[in-house]
Amino acid sequence: MSKTLFAQFTAREGAEDEVARLLRDYAARVREENGNLLFDVYTKASQPRSYWIFEVYEDEAAFQRHLKAPHGGPFNAALGPLIEEHASRLTFLDPVDLTSLAPMA
């Protein structure tokens, strides 16, 4: 079963360019990881300093490899002072099997 998560944080005012640069470099590395299926970065249309990152990994083992990758620690250390929150807020997602649901009447 794939491992899917949504991470969100807000860049501090004035740090937008540095956060974007960090994310560009980090996204390129994560996308090369064995088992990474998707790493998409978004900003909220009405609040461009608000970042939303959608990540999908092949399975739990691929996600665990991602957590141990050598580029994760330096990225998080560099990002920390540039965002409003203490750390990225993570939400883990489970797929819904829509084929098993009864049709609407």
Strand content: 25-35%
Can you count the beta strands? 4
Radius of gyration: 16 Å
Task: List low-confidence stretches.
Answer: none
Label the overall shape: globular
Number of helices: 3
- Overall residue-averaged pLDDT value: 96
Give the termini distance in whole angstroms: 31 Å
User: Which class best fits the helix and strand makeup?
Assistant: alpha+beta
Describe it for me?
It is a single chain. By secondary structure, the protein is α+β, with helices and mostly antiparallel strands. The protein is built from three helices and four strands. The chain has helices at 16-31, 60-68, 72-79; strands spanning 3-10, 36-44, 47-57, 89-93. A four-stranded antiparallel beta sheet has the order 2-3-1-4. Strand 2 and strand 3 form a beta hairpin. Helix 1 packs antiparallel against helix 3. The longest helix is centred in the N-terminal third of the chain and has 16 residues, at 16-31. It is globular. The two termini are 31 Å apart.
